[in-house]
Amino acid sequence: MFNLFKKKRNEVASPMTGQVILITEVEDAVFSSKAMGDGFAVRPSEGNVYSPIKGKVTSIFPTKHAIGLVDEKGLEVLVHIGIDTVELAGNGFEITVQEGANVDFDTQVATVDLAYLQSKNKPTTTMVICKNGAEATLAIKPGQYTAKTIIGEVK
Question: Percentage of the chain surpassing pLDDT 90?
Fold first, then answer.
């Protein structure tokens, strides 16, 4: 006999083209210690940022460096573009969605000028943090990926 009410897993995609790494490998202790939650990161080779989940945009930071998302099951995700990029006050970022917008893996949520971040000595590593990760288990496969590629799941 099988359980019809088994928890369905949520697929997670790489939001950017580049090297997907474990959150513990991020060069900033706030992220690598999981103080903000569990997740993963991408060392991007291109500046287009896509939604890593299917859901809705819940918040866009005024400094454009971070976007909050939630999926239909209540999983809250933060896409944080770069490290210490709040200091750039929005320069180098373009947001392509609005709060309340429905998103999926094909939805571009932002564009970041990677060369600009590098010129300001800001690491371009982009984190995807499960804000309510204590209630979820994240399983991803690190490696080189194209944006929008499914790299794992949250259950």
Answer: 80
